[in-house]
Amino acid sequence: MKKTAFCQLQIKSFDDEGIIRGIATTPTTDRAGDIVEPMGATFTLPLVLLHEHDRKAPLGHVIEATATPAGIEFVARIAKDATAGIAEVWQQVKAGLIPFVSIGCNVTESVPIATGYRFKKWEWLELSLTTVPANPEAAIRLVKTQPQEKHTMTLAEQIRSFEQQKAAAIAKMDGLVTKGAMLQGDDATAYDAAQDEVTQIDKHLARLQAAEQRQAQTAAPVSKSIAAPYIEVRDAAPKGTDFVRFTKALALSHGNPMQALEIAKGMGYGSRVETCLKAAVASGTTTSAEYSALVEPQLMASEFIELLRPALIVSKMTQVRNVPMNIKFSKATSGTSASWIGEAKPAPVTSAAFANVALGEAKLGAIAVFSEELLRRSEPSAEALVRDDLIATCANAIDIAFIDQANAGVANVKPASIANAATTAATTGTTAAAVRVDVKAAYGAAAAANQPLASAVWVMHPTTALALSMMRNVNGAREFEGIDFVTGGTFEGLPVILSTNVPGTAVAGYDVILAVQNEILLAEGGLAIDASREASLEMDSAPAGNAATPTAAQLVSLWQNGAVAIKAIRGITWARRRPTAVYRISAAKYA
Predict the structure, then answer these.
(1) Which of 16, 320, 536, 591 could form a disulfide with 430 if both were Cys (CB 3.0 to 4.6 A apart)?
(2) Does residue 281 register a pLDDT over 50?
(3) How many whole angstroms separate alpha carbon 555 and alpha carbon 540?
(4) Which residues, 6+ apart, have CB-to-CB distance to 205 below 8 Å?
(5) 125-179: pLDDT as tens digits
(6) Beta carbons of 340 and 546 less than 8 angstroms apart
(7) What's the angle, vertex CA 49, arms to CA 15 and CA 123, rounded to 5?
(8) For residue 147, is the peptide bond before it cis, meaning its omega torsion is within 30 degrees of 0?
(9) What are the Cα distances from residue 94, in Å, to 59, 89, 150, 492, 512?
(10) Integer Rg of the chain from CA
């Protein structure tokens, strides 16, 4: 299996001899969903050094490479004076314009994981300088001040660098141990290698710290400030990662903040998660809408909400009116009128009538169930799985409530769907001509109600969009040119939003909704997380306990099944300013 993997080039140093030092790859999940194990590499030095994998334009060679559990450190020499093209690339590397590398390899042993594959054994063929990163977790960049070009790391910088390597090795060890099984085979080998690395780093740190103390005793104060190179550490983990780590630690500790803190430390979750868990507040509400004392919890919850929003139908409506919760809006039900006035005649007086639109407060609770084994796994693929499932659980519940006309709402509990009690018409047929009749009726109803169609948008199921995109006329041309069943595109002049939560079935057909965006009021609150493993759940999206007449249901014990339930509570509500803001075409099954 041929494979190209990308990671951020950590340029530790370079000089006028064309030497660069950095990290070739790390054991983090790349954007293709794969993990490349550094210790699984086989290679023979020197390796060819390329630019953007162009085999016809070699730059030099990789002359040194050392594989560790945290990554493969390399030293490469660029033949900077060989050609004008290579000299130009060298200048771009020094200027920081090419900060990434890519490995070309031949995979000889791999195993499937949730997001793709884990490459356990692979032959390293070449290393390329590139401008396109694919590994989002490469986090450390060396920023060099100008005009200095050569720089030898200070003792303090070396100590920080080795402490970071030690932390990465410890995190690797903890990730292996917390899998819940005795380490064997490759896992045992990787753990022992990481442990040896920590031992060697500790010995070298002792040497560096002793040298630093000797320098401090003989140091003299400088007469002026000198700009020195520094290491900038950036958190480049995917958004929502810290929120998921916080949630996992809370779930594994069964709500005990002190135990959650120790779990977070043991799994190497970082200072931001630990700061939240150290907070002198109830850990289950540190990300709620009412919480404002800590900055970190707000940032973590905001990152998760930013990931959740693009998955929602309402968030894809770019012109909705964002308002606070618990407010009232006035709307005119009848307007004033003007009349012609004869000479010396009194002017008629008319009055306008108004009504209120109330937008209360509502919150949605979505429960996702995970095995304890999954929550204890600290690799990026496991965290991504938890994050994506939490997003999908919340998004599906919100979308169904938002778009399903059967949702009439419950006072002080949940808002009614924007399609509830909206003008509805059954589709007139399955042909392109019938489609145009349906569209004309929808546009006509909006125009008759004086609704601004420029703010309107179509909401439909991907199956409906696929059918419309494949309709052809007698000449073989597309009947509806702009629609796309992947991105939505446009349909009869208006944008299309796609969602698999649009009501309907493949047999009976799906609803097609025309919604005027700026007639929809949206209020959003915060996010709170709770967890339990002692509860018994009715594993159903519509539990009988919520029904008007509850029926007996079989409950599942989380404790008995080794599972943990995570409940995400999201504050969100909406309302239409006028019923005519939405038009519904029901049971559309276009052929």
Answers:
(1) 591
(2) no
(3) 10
(4) 159, 162, 163, 166
(5) 888 888 765 554 433 333 333 334 445 678 888 888 888 788 878 878 887 777 7
(6) no
(7) 130
(8) yes
(9) 15, 9, 10, 52, 56
(10) 31
Q: Is the peptide bond before 310 cis (omega within 30 degrees of 0)?
A: no
Give the closest residue to 299 by CA, choosing from 321, 280, 317, 275.
275
Which residue do the tokens 């990026």 mark?
Answer: 380
Q: What is the pLDDT of residues 60-106, one digit of tens each?
A: 999 988 888 878 888 888 988 888 888 888 888 887 778 778 888 88
Q: If we measure between CA atoms, which residue out of 424, 362, 423 comes closest to residue 398?
A: 362
Which residues touch 576 (CB under 8 Å, ≥6 apart)?
A: 418, 519, 520, 521, 582
Q: Angle at the Cα of 372 (from 270 to 191), degrees rounded to 5?
A: 55
Residue type, 252: L
In single-letter form, the type of residue at position 74 comes to: F
Rounded-to-integer distance, Cα 119 and Cα 116, Å:
10
Q: Report residue 80 as tokens.
A: 């900077």
Tokens of 290: 């009412």
Q: Are β-strands 509-516 and 504-505 bridged in parallel, bridged antiparallel, or unpaired?
A: antiparallel
Instruction: Tell the residue number behind the tokens 């999206």, with chain if given.
Output: 541
Q: Could you tell me the pTM of the whole model?
A: 0.49
Q: Are 228 and 154 in contact (CB under 8 A)?
A: yes
Beta bridge partners of 7: 101
Distance CA 186, CA 192 (A): 10
For tokens 């560096």, what's the residue? Answer: 208
Helix (H) / strand (E) containing 394: helix 380-403
Task: Please give the Cα distance from 498 to 460 (Å, whole number).
Answer: 5
Distance CA 354, CA 334 (A): 7
SS3 state of residue 514: strand
